[in-house]
Amino acid sequence: MEEYPYRLLEIDLTSRKTTHLEMEQDRLCQFLGGSGLAASILFDLLNPHRDPFHPESPLIFMTGLLTGIPVPCGCRISVCAKSPLGIWGEANAGGYWGPELKFTGFDGLLIKGKADKPVYLYITPQGAEIRGAIDLWGKGTFLTTEKLLAATDPKAQVAAIGPAGENLSFMAAIVTGGMEARVMARTGLGAVMGSKNLKAIVVRGDKKPHIYDAALLHETTKEFSAHLKFVESLSKFGTAALIESKEAIGALPIKNFTLFHWDKATRISGPTMIAEFLTKHYGCYSCPIRCGKEVKVNKGPYAGLSGHGPEYETLASLGSLILNDDLTAIINLNYLLNDLGLDTMSAGITAAFA
Fold this sequence. Notes:
This protein is α+β, with helices and mostly antiparallel strands. It folds into 2 domains: about 5-205, Aldehyde Ferredoxin Oxidoreductase,  A, domain 1, CATH 3.60.9; about 225-354, Orthogonal Bundle (Aldehyde Ferredoxin Oxidoreductase Protein, subunit A, domain 2). Helices cover about 30% and strands about 20% of the residues. The chain has helices at about 25-30, 35-45, 95-105, 140-150, 165, 190-195, 215-225, 230-235, 240-250, 270-275, 310-320, 325-340, 345-354, and strands at about 5-10, 15-20, 60-65, 75-80, 90-95, 110, 120-125, 125-130, 155-160, 175, 180-185, 200-205, 280, 290-295, 305-310. The strands form 3 sheets. It has a 6-stranded mixed sheet, sandwiched between helices. A 6-stranded mixed sheet has the order 8-7-12-9-10-11. A 3-stranded antiparallel sheet has the order 13-14-15. A hairpin with a 2-residue loop joins β7 (about 120-125) and β8. α1 packs across α2 and α11 packs parallel to α13 (about 345-354). The longest helix has 14 residues, at about 325-340. The termini are far apart. The relative contact order is 0.13. The model has no long low-confidence stretch (mean pLDDT about 95).
């Protein structure tokens, strides 16, 4: 069988040097890209006794084998490192950043070292440029994304940290897609990025991933796509569709996990959000489900606010967990936390525990 080259770009922020690496086929066949391959690399490179914020603690962004391929949900990107919590750290997001990285001809990024002042990376098929980001330090992820698209290419994709990552919060996330907010949120890896003085990574490419048998892939995808009817509620309401069904079976987290049922769950549900606040549906790369929702608040203290519609986990964490049935307040909190680069789940759970 034809070998598939899996190329990584190693970037040392201390020396400002970059190296092109190619993964061994045996390792690729064993771990199949994504967080599995990243874990194997981290196992080889990481000193387990080293602080996660040490300059030589690696930060790895890795695409999967199907990222950037025209198949449903072929959009995922994983980021892996030793978490600030001292454990294995992994976060994952959809959107367009992962496929755009793939289009640069690189399947992953291996980032080491620490810049002496804030920087961002601009990744293209030619490699990586390390550019100054002092003027962006302290800015939210939304404005950062806007500024970097203007400075690079309006069709590029941006992964950025906000003030949370800069200040090394253990709940810091990495936000892609600007206000569409496809977020690598879990395990505090935005703080690892911040510890390296790395504000953002901008990717822009024009190389299509290699497909061994494009005709077979097309036919298989066509056959599979016909069975996506089971996600109709996800298309219509997004992951918020889960609120009422979870409550009905006693699986919705309520009042810091102390209650099984809550008669106000409907007020923060997917159907309520769509009926009262939806402005458009949107989707990730090559995904027909289109579970993303853009919402706008038209009245009350948050009138005029528009942005990403909260996902199920956010609605539960900032809603049912703290007995908050004000959907406009949750939309506002979701906007603020995404802009700050804070994991909405961790923030809500922390508030519920307090």
